[in-house]
Amino acid sequence: MHLRIRAAATLAVAASFIGLVGLAPPVSASQTPQTPEGKYCTIVVEPVKPGEKTSRVKSRTCTDDRATAAAARNSARTPLMSWYEHANYGGDSTMVFGDYGPCDLSGYKLNTGLWSRSISSFRTYSSCNFQSAYRYDGDCCATYWGYDTPYVGDWANDRIGSFQINNI
Fold it and tell me: Does residue 7 lie in a domain region?
């Protein structure tokens, strides 16, 4: 079912871009591109600025090739979080990097975009030891401590719309 949702979203987004290429404003985290373009993605975000609800996305790249993804990840900034399609860190993945250093008390607020229907496990890095996951249906929230979460639990599985990650 996830594949059909992704395929339908890909077709809808591709059709909408035909007439809009070059007209789009800079992407914010609340406008994260909704269609993955590969199995392994890298996102670079800024911390939340005053008046904004989520961290702005500075760049986003996806590839089907693990080696290309690893090269992109090695050239990125501070690693913050990895999202995985399946429990125990399996399946497709997205790695999120911070452009302004590791987590602190303010942390980062991440919109998961299309991943909101795919996250089953995640890892955090760079002092991001406290995570709040919010469901895409607005239901609040699951909290996790530490860095590795091999399964988000039935309440949050394939339902995480955003994360707040901090160092507490």
Answer: no
Per mean pLDDT, which range of 4-13, 64-73, 121-130, 142-151 is the poorest?
4-13
Q: What is the pLDDT of residues 26-73, one digit of tens each?
A: 333 344 434 445 677 888 888 888 888 899 988 888 877 767 666 666
Residue 81 resides in a domain: yes
pTM of the model: 0.69
How far out from the chain centre does Cα 83 lie?
Answer: 7
Distance CA 77, CA 153 (A): 30
Distance of CA 68 to the CA centre of its chain: 19
Residue 59 sits in which domain range? 26-166
**19 token code pair:** 């007439």
